[in-house]
Amino acid sequence: MTFRERLQAWRYNLVPDHLVGEILTKRWTDNAIPFLALVATLGVFGSIIPGFFKLTSLQESTRQLGEFSLVVIGMTVVMLGGGIDLSVGSIFALSCFSAVYVFFILDQSIWLALAAALAAGLVFGAINGYLVGYLRLRAFLTTLVTFIFGRALFDILVTTYAADVQLSQASSDVLDFIGDGTFWGLSVSVWLAIILAIVTHIALTRSRPGWHVLAVGGSRRSAHNAGIRVRRTVFMTYVFSGFCASIGGFLIACRLSGAGPGTGLNLEIMALTAAVVGGVSLGGGRGSVVKGLMGAVIVLTMTNGLIRLGYGTGTNQMVLGILLAVAVTIDIRWLKNRHKVLNEVYVAPVYLKMGETQSAAPGSGTSYELDNRLSAADHIGLGELEGPEDVILDRDDHLYCGTRHGEIVRFFAPDYKRSEVFAHIGGFPLGLAFDRDGNLISCVGAMGLYSVSPERDVKRLSAETARSWTSIVDDARLRDPNDCDIAPDGRIYFTDSTKRYDAHDWALDSIENRATGRLLVYDPKDGSTKTLLDGYRYTNGVCMAHDGKSLFFAESWACRVHRYWLEGPKAGTAECVIRDMPGYPDNINRASDGNYWMAWLGMRTPSFDLSLRHPDMRKRMTRRLPQDEWLFPNINTGGVVKFNEKGGIVETLGDLSGNAHPMVTSMREHKGYLFVGGILNNRIGRYKIEGADPNWTSPASYWGAKP
User: Fold this and answer.
1) Above 70 in pLDDT, residue 58?
2) How big is the CA angle at 217 (ends 214 and 223), to the nearest 5 degrees?
3) Helix, strand and coil in the chain, % to nearest 5
4) In what order do the strands lie in the sheet with 448-452?
5) Residue 168 binned pLDDT confidence (cut-offs 50, 70, 90)
6) What's this model's pTM, rounded to 2 decimal places?
7) Does residue 438 come out as left (phi exceeding 0), alpha (psi in the -120 to 50 range) or beta?
8) Is Secreted set as a keyword in this record (predicted)?
9) pLDDT digit string (tens) for 632-689?
10) What are the angstrom distances between the C-alpha of 498 and each of 170, 216, 532, 538?
């Protein structure tokens, strides 16, 4: 290794560039900006305003915050549903007046005053919901009209009845407690805001109506096509917004024991600014109640802080306008360009120097020398299949394979000319294995580990494993489960090729070449999935040894095969048994003579091997060139290799013509024939093996003779 290469290895292997892309993919990163803004706002105003964090100051501020947060929660739900509500200020004011009128002028109970406030909010919310949801009017103009009407009505009522309210002698301990009392150090308004925020959050994230709101906000047309009642959903968001504003109006009525011309003034601008600053998207479908509440704290802290610093209303309005403009710009630009940023930073190649290998070219005389025997294989399902990545046969000699359409197809013995869809799983069924009871186990790309019973019942066994809390990379979800095999005790061992890419992005993983593949085990006794080994370059095929005490698994991009011991003095450890192969290994399966078959999905090339030593070049390539011009591993030429327990190469087969099976991802020996599959093929090959046991089958090798 030259000094320059050593520097590249240190730079790209030790500096975790990939963490930037990983962090940007997380949903919680959307909360980072508003959270940092919240911390900065509290820090700045807390340091320049004397007594900012004193208990008496905080109690008064939190009362306002509770009332304001209720309005922001309602605004957040409307925006998540794809709308906007500019009338919350007038609804807030009218609800306040309704409560004041009933309690102070009509001299009724506080609970009747609450009912009046709620009625005012629900009526206006229903009007907005009907006009926007059912009549499909523009939300901005519609709620602007109701805001103007509601504000005018409030001004008339306040002017008319202001003197009557001031002369009223009505009083209530309940009203005083709601307005000025505390419970466990927090005001009633704060407790109500907390309770409503929790309920709303649970409803949005854990209930069908909440999912409908987010779906409608994301795309109304798609939601309608999915059978969601879009108009009713939109209607209910505005009713809920009116409800929230009315609760806030009732609380301020209790706190101030009256209503004045300034009640709810500019509240709609503050609530909208709070929601957007908190990270709730104006486009709908993206945001949360927590984000809205963070925005509420930021806006209220800033406006109150400016007032305490001696700045007037004009300054407050200007600051709110600047905040809103900045938040909207960030929201729109980030939403539009997020995928571009991720494309620029996500793929983070590392340095790898591949070992010298022997040639597999015909006439080379090495143990890896390929011949042309696979070109003579018979065809099964020619033109009927797309991507039979793995093939397997049952005790009755029927042949099974997965397809890229999410189906498992069964070909009937003995001639395999008749077929049927055995099961539809979805995703991309990859590795296959039969358990003792005849259930077909399949690794399904981007979905997990699945089981199909002989009666064709599909069951998901596992879609995740325990999360490593020390890693930013989300390794809980199974992203690319690839191949599986079953131990004598029923435990299922399978590979998850990469923790950073889904199955269809295997090419990106090969270019990055980061060691994120792992070996896992699923225990049917308790339903648990555990990671046994981690840190391999695209773990792929896995096969139980003939004695059931160890297993072999392939590491594709490193061109190696490892043996993992289940029993004996080496239990729990792995050792490399084949290294520096000229081909990329894929599935591994048992052979009738006590050896093992291994697929080569492609062959190494000097150009790609050289590129692995230049991560900076691969990085520039992914940034500057269109994907169809990238340098990928060669997967157009492969073959089949037989190796023994010690890793010695026994035999190789290939298709040099390239007509039938130039690329191989799986093979399965059964009664003297080798059945060959390929993820890019449109057929299954059947090749007669010279000298093979004509009675040997894989199910019998694993589970004994047919009962």
Assistant:
1) no
2) 80
3) 45, 20, 35
4) 428-434, 440-445, 448-452, 458-462
5) low
6) 0.78
7) left
8) no
9) 999 888 999 999 999 999 999 999 888 888 889 999 999 999 999 999 899 999 999 9
10) 71, 34, 14, 6
How far is CA 649 from each of CA 581, 586, 595, rounded to the nearest angstrom? 10, 16, 10
Please enumerate, as own/partner, the contacts of 146-151 that have beta carbons within 8 Å and a separation of 24 or more: 146/87, 146/90, 147/86, 147/87, 147/89, 147/90, 147/268, 148/90, 149/90, 150/87, 150/90, 150/91, 150/93, 150/94, 150/124, 151/89, 151/90, 151/93
Q: What is the pLDDT of residues 430-458, one digit of tens each?
A: 999 999 999 999 999 989 999 999 999 99
- On the question of pLDDT at 365 being above 70, the answer is yes
Max CA distance (Å), the chain: 110
Instruction: Please name the amino acid found at residue 135.
Output: L
Q: What is the DSSP code string of 102-119?
A: IIIIS---HHHHHHHHHH
The Cα 482–Cα 479 span in angstroms is: 9
Cβ(650)–Cβ(592) below 8 Å: no
Report DSSP state, residue 279: T
Three state DSSP letters for 39-82: HHHHHHHHHHCCCCCCHHHHHHHHHHHHHHHHHHHHHHHHHHCC
Instruction: Fill in the amino acid letter for 52.
Output: F
Which residues neighbour 240 within 8 Å (Cβ) at sequence distance 6 or greater? Answer: 74, 77, 78, 125
Please report, in angstroms and rounded to a whole number, the separation of the first and last CA atoms in the chain.
59
Q: Say how far apart CA 94 and CA 122 lie, in whole Å.
A: 11
- For β-strands 550-555 and 560-565, DSSP reports them as antiparallel
> Does the pLDDT value for residue 39 go beyond 90?
no
Query: How many Å apart are CA 255 and CA 179, to the nearest integer?
Result: 4
Alpha helices in 219-312 (DSSP H): 220-225, 230-256, 267-278, 289-308
Residue 55: is its pLDDT beyond 60? no
What is the three-class DSSP state of 218?
helix
% of the chain exceeding 70 in pLDDT: 97
Closest CA to 277 of 217, 244, 320, 306: 320
Residues 567-579: tens digit of each pLDDT:
999 999 999 999 9
Contact 554, 588 (CB under 8 A): yes
Q: What is the DSSP-derived secondary structure letter of residue 567?
A: S
- Quick check: helix, strand or coil at residue 582? coil
How far CA 705 is from CA of 197, 243, 400, 451, 640, in Å, comes to: 62, 70, 20, 22, 27
